[in-house]
Amino acid sequence: MTMSTDFNLSTLIPGAAPTMPAVSAPPVMQLENVSVFYGNYEAVRGTTMAIREHQITALIGPSGCGKSTVLRSLNRMNDLVNGARVAGKVTFHGQDLYAADVDPIQVRRRIGMVFQKPNPFPKSIYENVAYGLKINGIKDNMDDRVEQALRGAALWDEVKGKLKSSGLALSGGQQQRLCIARAIAVKPEVILMDEPCSALDPIATGKIEDLMHDLAGTYTIVIVTHNMQQAARVSHHTAFFTAELDEAGVRHGRLVEFNDTGRIFTNPGDKRTEDYITGRFG
Amino acid sequence: MTTTTTAARPASSAPAPADLRRSALPLRRRLTDGFAKGLMVLALLVALVPLGLVIYKVIEAGAGVMSLDFLVDDIPNSARRAGGGMGPAVAGTLIITGAAAAMSIPLGVLGAIYLNEYGKQNALARLIRTMADVMTGVPSVVMGLFVYVSYVLLVKEQSGFAAALALGCLMLPIIIRSTEEMLRLVPDELRQASAALGARRWKTTVSVVLPAAISGIVSGIMLAIARAAGETAPVVLVAGTAFVSNWSLSGDNTTLAAQIFKNAGEFFPAAQGRAWGAALTLMAIVLVFTVAARLISSRFAIKER
Fold first, then answer.
1. Alpha-helical runs (H) found in chain A
2. How far apart are CA B281 and CA A119, in angstroms?
3. NCBIfam families, from UniProt (chain A) (predicted)?
4. A123 vs B192: CB contact, 8 Å cut-off?
5. Looking at residue A137, what is its pLDDT?
6. Which of B121, B198, B211 is the closest to A135 by Cβ?
7. Which residue of A has its CA nearest to B119?
8. Residues of chain A predicted below pLDDT 70
9. Do A121 and B198 make contact, defined as CB atoms within 8 angstroms?
């Protein structure tokens, strides 16, 4: 690893020492020259990167750089936005997600999502987790499956006595873990996380980060985060996005650099990446 | 550390502690505050006066004739005769309003679901929205005339069904618009969360959006039902009249509102007493249904705690 080189940027950002060694794993998803449009506006331009199996990939960058937009293009959540359109190719095990006969519902059953703001359904804790199973037609061993998902999200011990009470009565951090439990209950292959800790305090954030380490053994995770230390702590690969003006003076998000997290944080290949992670970003 | 810095600071530079008590506020501000509060309480009391008087007068005048027999007995076919009851009108109100609700609630709720979950801002949805707004403003007597011309004259029979049609048409736009407002209040995050689990839109609507909005939807429906139960003009126009209970939708029928209108217009004290009794009965029926609807919807509604 490049951690031992004399030019070690991680020492400039306390707590940002990359901890997850990247290992080469087969790609589950592949983005080829992906651009996302809202109406006529091109929010993100030409993104090419790979999402590797059972690894955590972090998308970082300043506000408005299109990292969330790219994330939402991975399970066709952008379909729900009026006028949103994806150009280029997103493949999942080699299958084009935007091919004409692909059912977005089937896509989302395999590629789950956790949102920025914890958004449990206004139902009981049990019902929240069981919901995804029910809509997928799973009816047997419901109690076991719910317990498994809650254990998987490191929430079981805190809620096992009150499964019937509302998911909204939990704390913010617990709600977010409930949302993760809800997502993993349907056993997706990939979990997309859109700034899952931005509404949480440091302790709750720590719990979610630990959880992500545990989940990475079973799931492929893509996380969008504002927090560079978080990206350094949890991810194997990091993609740095930024927003730039084009010739016509219109802002577009662009992927600047995509590499192993260790490399991005210790020896970035691009000046803009270095500026951003050392805090010299304008 | 901090204490030493504070101690080191010369005492004279510390600002005088502000007086935080309310009594320290300028007189003008306190007077304005008190005046505005008083005005609001007064406005509330004034608004309650007509409501209180109506309830008081209806109970006072209606209680005299009220009895179990009054609720089931036939209406005397001569207004001057004392005794009798409002049984046919109670039957008519229940069957006609019930039929109107059975027609307009499913249509209205499904229409609102289309508007808010599917159509959104497309041309058809905008057209339906505008039409519903226009329909809300149609006077009930016009709706009665419409049904009279387009249905009663066609089948050559006044009937409870014709009245139910007119009342249903009056309820429909209210239900569509109030339900749509309630659906719009459901946060989009919930729809996205459901979609991200692989739920189809219909599934999301039925399992997440409707339960989240159910209590508001029921309130809107109850308002529409209460309004329909109290409508007079269309019923008088298209239902004809009845003196014995008619629990079917065909044939002449009558409602409490129509009977209030007819009996209150008579000079005879017996008829006036029946009008008050009918008014009390109508209010009680609406109250009972509203409470029942609340209880039922609270069972479906999702609990916050």
1. 67-73, 104-110, 125-135, 142-152, 156-159, 172-185, 202-215, 228-234, 261-266, 271-277
2. 46
3. 3a0107s01c2
4. no
5. 87
6. B198
7. A82
8. 1-23, 281-282
9. no
**Structural domain spans, chain A:** 2-14+25-120+192-277
Q: Residues, chain B, total?
A: 305
**In the CATH hierarchy, which top-level class contains the domain B87-300?**
mainly alpha
In chain B, what are the domain boundaries? 87-300
Provide Rg for chain A, Cα atoms: 19
CATH no. for A2-14+25-120+192-277: 3.40.50.300
Please tell me the predicted confidence (pLDDT) of residue B12.
Answer: 57
pLDDT of residue B110: 96
Of the candidates B203, B201, B11, B220, which has an alpha carbon nearest to the alpha carbon of residue B105?
B220
Interface list for chain B against chain A, based on CB atoms closer than 8 Å: 120-121, 187, 189-200, 203, 207-208, 211-212, 302-305
- Please, how many CA atoms are within 13 Å of residue A50, restricted to the half-sphere of its CB? 12
Of A115, A168, A183, the CB nearest to B189: A115
- Choose among B189, B196, B203: nearest Cβ to A75: B196
| Beta-carbon separation of A77 and B190 below 8 A | no
Low-confidence residues of chain B, pLDDT below 50? 1-7, 305
Secondary structure class of B303 (helix, strand, coil): coil
Predicted confidence at residue A3, as pLDDT, reads 42
d(CA B87, CA A256): 81
Determine the pLDDT at residue A12.
47
pLDDT score of B10:
53
Contacting residues for B30 by C-beta, under 8 A, at least 6 apart = B22, B23
pLDDT at residue B14, as a whole number:
64
Q: What residues of A are in contact with residue B196 (Cβ under 8 Å)?
A: 75, 77, 108, 112-113, 115, 183
